[in-house]
Amino acid sequence: MSAIAAEHPDTVVNTPLGGPGLPQERRLVTSIPGPRSQELIDRKAQAVAAGVGHTAAVHAVAAGGGVIVDADGNSLIDLGSGIAVTTIGNAHPKVVAAVQEQVAQFTHTCFMIAPYESYVSVAEALNRITPGEHAKKSALFNSGAEAVENAVKIARKFTGKQAVVAFDHGYHGRTNLTMALTAKSMPYKSGFGPFASEIYRAPLSYPFRDRLDGVVAAKKAISVIEKQVGADNLAAVIIEPIQGEGGFIVPADGFLPTIVDWCRANDVVFIADEIQTGFARTGEMFASDLFGIVPDLITTAKGIAGGLPLAAVTGRAEIMDAAHTGGLGGTYGGNPIACAAALAAIDVFENDGMIERAREIGAILTDRLGALQAADPRIGDVRGHGAMMAAEFVDPATGEPDAALTAAVAKTCIAQGVIVLTCGTYGNVIRFLPPLSIPDDLLHEGLGVVAAALASA
Ligand code: PLZ
Questions:
Q1: Which of 121, 107, 117, 22 has the alpha carbon at shortest distance from 439?
Q2: Which residues are bridge partners to 270 per DSSP?
Q3: What's domain 3-91+354-456's architecture?
Q4: From 84, 189, 229, 452, which residue has the greatest number of CB atoms within 10 Å?
C-alpha cells in the first residue's frame, strides 16, 4: 500500500485493475490549485517554456484506478487517462513489475546495435492483434507523431509515389510532417510553418454537421482526391477511424469502407491512425474493427505500454519490408523498458477483460450523457464508442458551436475535482476517456459533477 493509501485505509478499494491501492474517491481538502500545486505551477512558469500548457493546475504525486492525487492531498477523478494513455489504469501492477524487472536487467542497448527479445515479442503481438489475417510486420518508435512519420515514409517507399491525403478535423502530431497532416491551426500549427509539401486534405464524414450518408460523404472525398491530387501521385491516405483531437467524430456507416475500397483499387496505402482509438478503448481492440475495415498500415502509441513512451507501425509485410535495411530506426525506438511495459499491457488488454470493461463504461457514458442531452438542448450531439465518448456543445437557437460554454463547464469540473478534457476543431466538445480501471461509482460521481457544472453554466 502506498503512503497516501495508508493515510486513508478505510477508503482503499482494490480496484479490479490495480493501481497503487489509492482510495477511490473524490476528495477536495483545498481549493484547486492548493498551495503546493500553486508553488509548482509558479516554478513551471519560470522554468518551462510557455508553449507547454496544462489542463489542470495540479501537482500530481500519485495516480491509479480512477484517481489522480495531488501534493495538497486532493484526489481528483480522472476522466482523461492522460489523453487516452493509461487505459489499463495508472501504475498497473503488471506494468510496474515488468518495468522493475527490466530496468534492473538493462536499460538500453539500442535495438539497431544489439537486438533483444522484448522488441521482437512486441512486434509479434502487434502483428497478431491488429486487424486482418494477412502476414504483417512491425517497427517500433517513441511517440505517435514518429509512428505517423514512419508510416508515411514506408508508404512512399512502397508505392514510389509522394502525395498524402489527410482529412478535415484530423490530428496526427506536432512534428513538421505531422503538423502538415493535422488540420487545426491553433494551437498546433500557427506560426510554425512552412509545412511539409505534398500533403492534401479531403472532407470528412461528420454526421452531426453534414447530415450525409457515409457512402455519399466518401464519394465527395474521393472526388476531391481524384481532382486535386490524382491516384497516380498518391502514396497514402491517413485517417483516424474516429477523429480524436478533432472532436471524437464518428464517421457515418459506409464512409471508411468506401475509402478503403478506393485505396485498394488505386494502389494507395490506407493508413489507420489508431494512436488514440487503439487498444480496447472503443470496445474493440482497434476501432477499425468497429467499421469492419482492414488497414494496410496502422499506427499505434498511447495505450500500448500503460504509460511508457512507445509507438508502432504495423502492416502488410510486403509494404513494411519496402524500406531498405537501415532505412528505419532511431536511437530509442522500442526501448527495452517500454517494450517490457507493452508486453505486460498487451497481456492485460487481451486477458483481463478490457474490451468488455470498455463496453460497460460505454454503456454508462451513453446512458448518462444521453439523459443530459435529452434534458439540455445545449448538448447538440453525444457520440463515440466504449470508453471514448464525447458531448458536443452548441447554441440551441443556431446550432453554432459553443466553445465558451464548453470551456466554462470543463473549468468548473476541474475546480470540483474532476479532470475532463476538451477537444474539437471548434473547441466545443468535452471528451470522456476514463481509465478502464475506474470503479463504476466513481465514474457516476464524475458524471454527476459534469451535469452540475453544465446546470450552473
Ligand atoms: N495521432 C490520432 O491522438 C496524440 C496530442 C495532445 P504523440 N494526441 C494527443 C497534444 O496536444 O499534443 C496523437 C493522436 C493521433 C497522433 C498523435 C500524436 O501522438 O505521441 O503525441 O506524438
A1: 22
A2: 237
A3: Alpha-Beta Complex (3.90)
A4: 84
pLDDT mean over 387-408: 98
Q: Where are the domains of the chain?
A: 3-91+354-456, 95-351
Please, are residues 39 and 19 in contact by the beta-carbon 8 Å criterion? no
Residue with cell 469492419: 292
pLDDT at 19 over 90: no
What is the 145 CA–ligand 1 centroid distance (Å)?
A: 7
Which atom of ligand 1 sits closest to the CA of residue 170? 2
pLDDT of residue 55: 98
Query: CA 354 to CA 333: how far, in whole Å?
Result: 26
Give per-residue pLDDT as tens, 48-99.
999 999 999 999 999 999 999 999 999 999 999 999 999 999 999 999 999 9
pLDDT digit string, tens, across residues 245-295: 999 999 999 999 999 999 999 999 999 999 999 999 999 999 999 999 999
Q: How far is CA 346 from the centre of its chain?
A: 16
Q: Which three cell numbers stand for residue 455?
A: 446546470
Separation between Cα atoms, residue 338 and residue 38, nearest integer Å? 32
Residue corresponding to grid cell 472526388: 223
At the topology level, CATH places domain 95-351 in Aspartate Aminotransferase; domain 2 (3.40.640)
CB of 300 sitting under 6 A from ligand 1: no
- Give yes or no for a contact between 320 and 154, defined as CB atoms under 8 angstroms apart: yes
State whether the beta carbon of 275 lies less than 6 angstroms from ligand 1: yes
**Ligand 1 test: best mutation among 192, 245, 277, most atoms within 8 Å of CB?**
245
**pLDDT the model gives residue 15:** 44
Beta pairing class for 75-78 and 418-419: parallel
CA angle 295, 301, 303 (to 5 degrees): 110
Say whether pLDDT at 175 is over 70.
yes
The greatest distance separating any two alpha carbons of the chain, rounded to the nearest whole angstrom, comes to 66
Does the beta carbon of 171 sit less than 6 angstroms from any atom of ligand 1? Answer: yes
User: What residue ranges in 386-436 does DSSP mark as E strands?
Assistant: 388-393, 418-419, 421-423, 429-432
pLDDT at residue 216 above 50?
yes
The length of the chain, given as a count of residues: 457
